[in-house]
Write a structure and sequence with these properties.
This protein has 328 residues and is α/β, with parallel strands linked by helices. The protein is 33% helix and 26% strand.
Length: 328
């Protein structure tokens, strides 16, 4: 891909997150929204007109057959991520797929194998990894500014009145708190401390939908612990706390797309403001572009191995709490 070429995007799925993502895509000069696909042509056409996309498709397969599209953003319910990511790559497209990349490690492995076989770029859209506040905090921790990490505490919780028919609760679609929002606290512990040596987890399940509405996790490490929580049942302050032997760092609420953080050393807090461009998806889009221009099939900052290890952690949590999806 030439450095002067515009990068042409296709969108699979026209829900809320896709609208936000495409609004950020419009902020990046080298990005072009070329095609939009939904299972309903009317929905795709409405989305395309709103965001000035060149083409609208009434099926995902039609978009996959479009040779003009360079990279596809997949924003469907979780249970379709693996199938659609694989189809997109086998039809010659690069892929950015919403998190989680799949409902389990087995599916994730198939995605990564397809990326390597087809030599197409693939990345799980864990946008937090590229958030400017997060990048700064990660560097400070890697530089040992707060010493050895001893404790991480992170929540992702909000009170919601989802109906049993909502995709967020539908176990057939990979619904539930863990994969929808619990992935964020699990990601934070993983990216800072690695794969835990032991996991303890408990869930509260929806009375009729069978999906988890609240899950708590403790990740045990040799010299540290992470206490993590996700819920659709209650609010939390959405501040992430990382405590080390020489200080603490607090990521502002809502920490998964923070606009700043506080560094505390010698009991003296320093606040850092780090503005976010657009909705915050811009940074993962830029990472995709950089990788495509460098002919890479994965990002070094959120690699295939990272995605495989994180979904394995979530598989372990589900095993602990007894959560199984019908497809398994």
């Amino acid at each position: 891909m030439n450095s002067s070429d515009k990068i042409k995007w296709g969108i699979i799925g026209c829900g809320k997150i896709a609208h936000k993502f495409v609004s950020d895509l419009a902020l990046i000069d080298e990005a072009v929204l070329t095609g939009v696909a939904s299972r309903s042509y009317e929905k795709a056409d409405e989305f395309a007109q709103k965001h000035k996309a060149k083409k609208a498709y009434g099926s995902y397969d039609e978009l996959f057959l479009d040779p003009e599209i360079d990279i596809v953003y997949i924003a469907t319910p979780h249970h379709l991520h693996a199938e659609l990511s694989i189809k997109a790559m086998e039809n010659g497209h690069h892929v950015l797929c919403e998190k989680p990349l799949s409902i389990n490690h087995k599916e994730a492995k198939s995605i990564i194998e397809t990326s390597r076989r087809t030599k197409r770029f693939f990345m799980e859209a864990l946008w937090t990894r590229f958030n400017p506040s997060f990048v700064e905090v990660k560097k400070r921790i890697d530089d040992r500014e707060i010493g050895e990490i001893k404790y991480i505490n992170a929540d992702f919780a909000f009170r919601s009145e989802f109906s049993t028919g909502d995709r967020t609760l539908d176990i057939n679609l990979g619904g539930g708190a863990l994969l929808d929002i619990g992935i964020y606290p699990a990601f934070l512990a993983y990216i800072m401390l690695g794969v835990p040596t032991e996991i303890v987890a408990k869930s509260i399940f929806h009375k009729t939908a069978s999906s988890d509405v609240q899950t708590s996790m403790i990740f045990q490490y040799a010299e540290a612990q992470a206490v993590l929580y996700s819920s659709f049942e209650s609010q939390s302050d959405m501040v992430a706390r990382i405590s080390g032997s020489k200080g603490q760092i607090y990521l502002n609420d809502r920490w998964h797309h923070a606009d700043g953080y506080t560094l505390i050393k010698n009991e003296r807090p320093q606040k850092f403001d780090v503005p976010v461009m657009g909705n915050g998806y811009t940074y993962e889009i830029i990472e995709c572009h950089n990788c495509l221009r460098a002919n890479k099939i994965e990002s070094k900052d959120w690699s295939h191995q990272n995605s495989l290890e994180l979904i394995s952690i979530l598989d372990d949590v589900r095993k602990q709490v007894g959560l199984k999806y019908p497809q398994e």
